[in-house]
Write a structure and sequence with these properties.
Elements lengths: L15 H20 L1 H10 L4 H23 L3 H13 L4 H7 L1 H17 L5 H4 L1 H25 L4 H11 L4
Helix pairs in contact: 1-4, 2-3, 3-4, 8-9
Length: about 170
């Protein structure tokens, strides 16, 4: 006689497959890290003495891992890029890679802010000036008041709260 009640069969959650996929990516990223293929490869390229070749190798490695993760495991390219960063970071040359890629990072930062700026519709200043002023007041004054309140609630002195709120105030 069976004393345990039969459990009903449950359907897997909607994100369960994605979770399994991401788990596989983490597993393979850890495997890459442990076998040290990529750090070895970067050290070989670094021995050539060519800064441009090293930068190209880091970019190719990062894009390859990101693309491979996206295609093999079905995760987003952004998650693959994150894992590429983990793989590159395991190398002893990660600081050099970060230094060499700083101009590229700066270019993408500028591109991001230009793209966000292109989304701004200047006619909103004329159509809804009061709402724009309200948002501006919240950003300029509200963040300092919020910081002041948080410091006081957490037990900070009046002096500390004023210093923190002044540090968050616009300086121009």
């Amino acid at each position: 006689m069976d004393t345990c009640p039969k459990q009903r069969q449950r359907k897997p959650l909607a994100g369960a497959r994605d979770h399994d996929r991401k788990g596989r990516v983490i597993h393979w990223t850890d495997a890459y890290r442990r076998c040290a293929i990529f750090p070895w490869l970067l050290s070989r390229v670094e021995r050539t003495g060519s800064r441009e070749l090293f930068t190209l190798a880091v970019i190719a490695l990062a894009l390859g891992v990101a693309f491979g993760s996206a295609k093999l495991f079905g995760v987003s390219f952004a998650l693959g890029a994150f894992f590429a960063g983990v793989v590159v970071n395991e190398s002893d040359l990660s600081h050099r890679a970060a230094k060499d890629l700083q101009p590229l990072q700066d270019a993408f930062t500028v591109l991001f802010f230009v793209a966000v700026g292109m989304l701004f519709d200047p006619s909103i200043l004329i159509r809804q000036p009061l709402q724009v002023l309200a948002v501006l007041a919240i950003v300029v004054i509200g963040k300092s008041l919020a910081a002041f309140g948080i410091v006081r609630v957490l037990g900070g002195s009046m002096r500390t709260a004023l210093i923190v709120s002044a540090a968050l105030a616009p300086d121009r």
